[in-house]
Amino acid sequence: FKCIKxxxxxxxxxxxxxxxxDVLIVRRKRGRFAGKWELPGGRVNSGEDLLSGxxxxxxxxxxxxxxxxxxxxxxxxxVIDERKKVLPIEPxxxxxxxxxxxxxxxxxxxxxxxxxxxxxxISAERFTEDIRTRNKLTGLTMxxxxxxxxxxxxxxxxxxxxxxxxxxxxxFDAYWxxxxxxxxxHLKIIT
Length: 191
Known about the structure:
Elements: E1 9-17, E2 23-28, E3 37-38, E4 41-43, H1 50-62, E5 72-80, E6 94-103, E7 116-122, H2 124-129, H3 131-135, H4 139-155, H5 161-164, H6 169-186
Parallel strand pairs: 1-6
Antiparallel strand pairs: 1-4, 2-3, 2-7, 5-6
């Protein structure tokens, strides 16, 4: 995806995937998304680059130290906040959302920070079959996981992406669309 406006606010998120292809999600403790599950990550501070911001967010939220070189960039999207709920400025702010992948063979030891009160590792099967879990995800997390589970994992089920086969951003764009369409068909939103 290409942004036509300058990004006003940046967020970075991580899919932390284990060797058994489970993905870490965390439940927000308070605020607008209290009780919702999301991927680790969040707002990148002013003057901070995306990787440094994401590494900091992961360390603060789940207590996992990650080498920035082990993160694979999957996707960048820009969202225009026309309702100005995030930043009340003119013109409408462009919010950058970047998704990265970190793969680890073992389930990492998670130590939650003060923003979240629970964590779990979710499989593609649970994501697909458990509607209660899906309904408790933030919208962005749902679309990111749909593209990952229904897109990447559908076409490359066993690949350890950063170790064996780097994923081009243009490839992920196709996986993103495939994943979101597959999720819509599964939920009978798209026929």
